[in-house]
Amino acid sequence: MKISIQKLREIVQEEQEKLAKTPKEVAEDAPEVDADEMGTALEQQLDFMKALKIKEARARRRANRLLAQRRGLARKIQELKSKK
Fold it and tell me: How many domains does the chain have?
């Protein structure tokens, strides 16, 4: 689909008008939120991150144990193959 130069200019002009809000207009559109509500949300996010770190540490320990078992089994298989 081809667009004429005039139509393209109109589209660009419309988009520029949409984006040409002043900071005051943007501030008027933004919802008012109490600071304590934002603090609570941040606190919850931090708690969630701490819980994820704990879960990650457990998963890493388990993965390391499984990897050690895998290596041990691989060694035993190699020993059995070399004895034949």
Answer: 1
